[in-house]
Amino acid sequence: MNYALWFQLASPEIVLSIAGLLLLLIAAWSSDKSARLVSILTVAAFFGALALSLNFLLADGYAEGADAFYGQYRMDRFAALSKVLIFLSAIACVIVAPKFFARDGMMRAEYPILILFASVGMGLMVSAVDLLTLYIGLELQSLAAYVLASFLRSDDRSAEAGLKYFVLGALASGILLFGMSLLYGFTGTTSFIGIQTAFSDGVSTGALFGVVFVLSGLAFKISAVPFHMWTPDVYEGAPTPVTTFFATAPKVAALALTMRVAIEAFGGQQSVWQQIVIFVAMASILLGGVAAIGQTNIKRLLAYSSINNVGFMLIGLACGTPEGASAMMTYLIIYVAMTLGSFICVLDLNDREGRPVEDIPKLAGLSRTRPGLAAALAVFMFSLAGIPPLFGFWGKFVVFDAAVAAGLIPLAALGIAASVIGAFYYLKVIKVMYFDEPADVIAPSDSTARLALIAVSALFVSPLGYFATLALSPITEDAARALFWAA
Amino acid sequence: MIQIFAFYLFASVVIASGAFTILARNPVHSVLWLILAFFNAAGLMILIGAEFIAMLLVIVYVGAVAVLFLFVVMMLDIDFAELRGGFMKNLPLGLALAAVFLAELVFGIGAYRAGNIELGEHALNPARMGASNIQAVGELLYTRYVFLFEMAGLVLLVAMVGAIALTHRKRAGVRPQNIGSQVRRRPEEATRNMQPVVGEGVEL
Q1: Could you report the per-residue pLDDT of A86-119, keeping only the tens digit for each?
Q2: How far apart (Å, rounded) are the C-alpha atoms in residues A344 and B153?
Q3: Which of A235, A396, A395, A214 is nearest to A306 (CA)?
Q4: pLDDT for residue B126
Q5: Could you tell me where the DSSP H helices lie in A31-155?
Q6: Closest by alpha carbon to A417, among A267, A315, A331, A296?
Q7: Residue B152 and residue A136: Cβ atoms within 8 Å?
Q8: Of B144, B148, B154, which has the smallest distance from its Cβ to A17's Cβ?
Q9: Across the interface, do A17 and B122 touch by the CB < 8 Å criterion?
């Protein structure tokens, strides 16, 4: 029992929790007038937590990671890298929100605070090495997310999105809990290491059911097919800054959590979960590619795009090798940059009265009215499609490379074929922007913060991003190695 | 001897009050019978040494859930006579469901007795064998699981913040009592001296 060390290991979450409680007091005393101050302080708290996580990621002393709180929480390089990604996306989502909500006078101090608490939950998720930590982290994140989805309570679509997300999320939590109780019943422990030990001499039928139910519950949280149905509706209905948040930070957390559960807890019995992951990955890639073709709403299109991308990332997990995990983390980093960029571009699409524009046909001729924005959006679309000079190609390349190395050649071939289908709808958006007659509905931007964020993410996914691989690949390899340390 | 007597007392009262819960004509009486059933079930739990569950039953079910039921029954205008009219119609379905549940129960216990299910071994802590349930649960909750316990507190806090954020609003057009302004009011602001002329009526 070394509480000083434990608090130090959990410091990112502790800093965020204390900041959240204090900001809640500020918000309670000065109501919505303080929304701006609370947002600024939230970003400051996030930067503090980010610095702490970066320290764990880069300092030499934590190569193996360390457990805290009686083996319920682990801080290693994998958790630290995931946390860095989560906090960066959360910062972006707090920064872009005030301009969006100000139009309806709905910018309230609760928005940054809920993002803060959701991030505490996500930090717990990626550090979880016990089923109980996993569940509490997941619930903390989900509960805040349900509220955020219906944050524009005067808007029917937002309320519908929140309700839908809540009901289906509760169902998924039930499935997950059922699986966890089966695992506990048949292995006698909730810790990942304990489950791994119990699995070392075979998996009983009951425990197998547990594995399937746990993976189904997690597949819901990462919106992988066949548990993806909520994604387009929730992404379309939720306010755009919240959608940006949903598509980035919770995705990172849930994917990292899935990796840790699969590799650490079920690692000894790879054949048990590998076929499930392969099926989910294939189905997500195909459905995400095909169903997006008919969409005319750009937020729905991006929702299907995120389903599609989750499929590609799961290929990395399906390999079950450190190379696969490292490829998955690389893809995840690039995915966050592409998704943040494209959603902030969507946030910048407003008509002359300041109303958000989400219809793709209304983007016609954007290249002539807003050439910069059109170019940025084109960069993100090309990158999401995985077209070579851009950084999105690198993510797909490393994932397929790992799949081929692990002998999953049919899966890799199918992924490559499906990415061609996917390219069609990304290119359709670009065609509308560049070759159609100008519809002239989009007004000039009114926010430099948004433009700066778009520029940064566009620069990262541009071919210049390949310079970052020099720094990134040792980090992702370290993270993957940390994940396999116990396995 | 006293234990056997207590068991039959609690058990028969549970069954009787359970029956009265569904047979009582007045829905408020139904809820009161339900509360009696909860209390006696708590007594049964104490008999088998599960005093923590007994306390939970009284605090959570009687203290919160049953009182909530009572509020719902008394506040909402539900026509219970009409609801009861569906009883005969739904009786076959109810009986069929009851038969399925019974069969599952028998099947489950039978399968477990047959020894075909191998559950995981879970080590009991021999040092804690003599302690009461409440002591054992409390010690674990506030030492080994203290981190998760605090985080579960955050989950509840988020639920509370969320409920307020989504439903609390400033209502326009309501005129709440402002005691300060009432006290501050002077006679000059509220009264006027008038000189009504005879035969002209009064001006209001």
Answers
A1: 999 999 999 999 888 888 777 888 999 999 999 9
A2: 34
A3: A235
A4: 62
A5: 35-58, 77-102, 110-127, 131-149
A6: A315
A7: yes
A8: B154
A9: no
